[in-house]
Design goal:
Elements: H1 2-28, H2 76-81, E1 83-87, H3 89-96, E2 105-107, H4 113-118, E3 122-124, E4 127-131, H5 133-140, E5 144-148, H6 158-164, E6 169-173, H7 190-207, E7 210-212, H8 215-218, H9 239-250
Parallel strand pairs: 1-2, 1-5, 5-6, 6-7
Antiparallel strand pairs: 3-4
Helix pairs in contact: 1-7, 5-6
């Protein structure tokens, strides 16, 4: 019961920080959120016939922020290989496209905050239990984690991961941009995604975390996602976009001293490879 109470408190604190961050971002743009507008939820429905126009100047990131990861020399494959990727559908696609190993990701398509925090979606070989993402991180003892939630739900579980395994470096990634042609997902709104990402940077500053601005490399000149990185009408990244994001990760590296007390007894993940990048990861195998 005490652990549950602590987790509830953590979630409440995070929600408050996200609300404050988004309010700050909106105030900088000269408006405040409506009373009935949720501060940290999926971008709200919009008229699919409405054209948002050029958003090139909308996304304003403070380049002097202490949380922002700036350009570095390419940290190479070792840096990428020692990173655990947490998230939803686009993180699943990293695995499905063969860009990261099974041992490098914990994700599920369509995942939301409640599932990530409370539902056991990760399994390990020789273990019949199902673990939440935070619990899985504690067992896998990663050098660093990159958290990319938001394609389906803009909630985050940053502090749950911090509490579960405080020895890992946490990098909060932007919600990926969407292409101007997102007809299969007409309710998505790039301006709101921009607002949320600006608020995420503010949250990272408050929590002492690092912010990875992959939106910078995934955007086209008009402020939307580069159409070369998406299938027409879709919002999910193709292999080219995923590769661009990984290159950005390696060239905006967060190099720190390894604080992990040990790397012993790390279990092996038990999901099968799925070749179709548009499908969800298969159910855990029995092996």
């Amino acid at each position: 019961m005490q652990k549950q109470a602590v987790l509830v408190c953590v979630i409440c604190v995070l929600a408050a920080l996200l609300t404050a961050g988004i309010t700050t971002a909106l105030l900088k743009r000269g408006k405040t959120p409506a009373a009935n507008e949720p501060a940290a939820s999926e971008p709200q429905s919009v008229d699919p016939t409405k054209t948002d126009g050029d958003l090139a100047g909308h996304y304003q990131i403070n380049n002097a922020s202490s949380a922002l990861l700036t350009e570095t020399a390419d940290a190479g494959s070792e840096y990428q290989d020692s990173t655990l990727f947490l998230g939803d559908s686009n993180t699943v696609r990293l695995y499905n496209n063969g860009l990261v190993s099974l041992q490098q990701f914990c994700a599920r398509e369509g995942i939301g905050t409640q599932v990530a925090l409370n539902e056991g979606i990760v399994t390990f070989k020789g273990d019949n239990n199902h673990y939440t993402i935070a619990q899985a991180v504690a067992k896998m003892k990663p050098r660093r984690v990159v958290m990319t939630f938001g394609t389906n739900d803009t909630g985050m579980e940053v502090q749950a991961v911090q509490a579960a395994y405080p020895y890992t470096d946490i990098i909060v990634n932007t919600v990926p941009p969407i292409p101007e042609n997102h007809s299969s997902y007409p309710h998505m709104d790039q301006a709101k995604i921009d607002d949320f990402n600006m608020a995420l940077l503010n949250m990272c500053e408050q929590l002492g975390l690092k912010f990875l601005n992959t939106a910078e490399t995934l955007k086209g000149e008009n402020g939307y996602g580069n159409p070369d990185y998406y299938t027409d009408g879709d919002i999910h990244l193709k292999s080219a976009g995923l590769k661009a994001a990984l290159t950005y990760l390696r060239t905006h590296a967060y190099q720190t001293e390894d604080r992990r007390p040990d790397t012993n007894n790390i279990p092996t993940r038990t999901l099968e490879y799925v070749s179709n990048p548009s499908s969800a990861v298969a159910a855990p195998s029995s092996g």
